[in-house]
Amino acid sequence: MTQYVGLIGRGLKHSISPQFQQAAFDHLGLDVHYEIWDTEENELPSIVEGLRRPPKLGANVTIPYKEAVLPLLDEVDSNAAGIGAVNTIVNYNGKLAGHNTDSSGFMMAMEKEGGFNPIGKTAVLLGSGGVARAASFVLISAGIKSLVVTDIIAEKMHGLVVDLKRVQAGGRESLTEIMALSADDPRYRDAVSGCDLLVNCTPIGMKHSTTEGRSPIEADLIPKGALVYDLVYNPLETVLMKAARESGAHALHGLSMLVYQGAAAFELWTEREAPIDIMMDAARKSLE
Question: All domains of the chain, ordered by start, with CATH?
Answer without folding.
Answer: 3-100+256-287 (3.40.50.10860), 103-255 (3.40.50.720)
